[in-house]
Amino acid sequence: MAAATPTEKTARTPLMAGNWKMNLNHLEAIAHVQKLAFALTEKDHDAVETAVLVPFTDLRSVQTLVDGDKLKIKYGAQDISSHDSGAYTGEVSGPMLAKLKCTYVAVGHSERRQYHAETDEICNAKVRAAYKHGLTPILCIGEGLDVRKAGEQVPYTLAQLDGGLKDIPADQAESVVIAYEPVWAIGTGEVATPEDAQEVCGAIRARLAELYSQELADQVRIQYGGSVKAGNVAAIMAQPDVDGALVGGAALDAEEFVKIVRFRDQ
Ligand SMILES: O=C(CO)COP(=O)(O)O
Q1: What GO annotations for molecular function exist for this entry (predicted)?
Q2: Apex CA 90: angle with CA 84 and CA 92, to 5°?
Q3: Is the ipTM of this complex over 0.90?
């Protein structure tokens, strides 16, 4: 399957999402979003969609700020329960996230797969829960170092894609965001080369065309994540199948994150 042409790429609005992970309490969250709101211009918002994926305890504060000041910054959660309600201590449900007007929810981040034993089946149930409640899942997939060393990154990542999207109909999958995050590049400073990112992101798009249609595949945004910074974002974004970034550490610095949003100026 051929990679997307540049014309197709321009039809996809880039999505820069900051994954705060377990950082910034609700007061720090307010200060941080205010800094972003102050820095980002109409021109930025027209060119790039900007989102923050925040700890559950920050959501209400961020919602109040975004609603009150009519900000164009989108927000969401880092996880969702596969259940709607009930005796699931510690979990947060889709209806709760929808009530807080979340746009996005990350599903299957490698840290959840690794520390919370989330399988592709669980991720699939969470993708369903997101769609059931009107949230857009950002399905995170990507290989570890052992898989990369064995040269198996493409089949490994595509198997995670298949598992996460199993039986998800096209009218839902057309809005999914896929985040390709090679585990060996997360928080390590070890960024994948733009060619590494393109190899797997291109394969993801080709697989989406096989699973659904070329039209759907051309529409889906595929992000790269793993040690993205202002200094490397432009080269990664220049790849034909990379439509945005999922940013960890660098998203905790508002100025740096704004530079990432303005990747075309870097
Ligand atoms: O896991 C990530 C985003 O979800 C990437 O984290 P870093 O940008 O800190 O490497």
Answers
A1: triose-phosphate isomerase activity
A2: 35
A3: yes
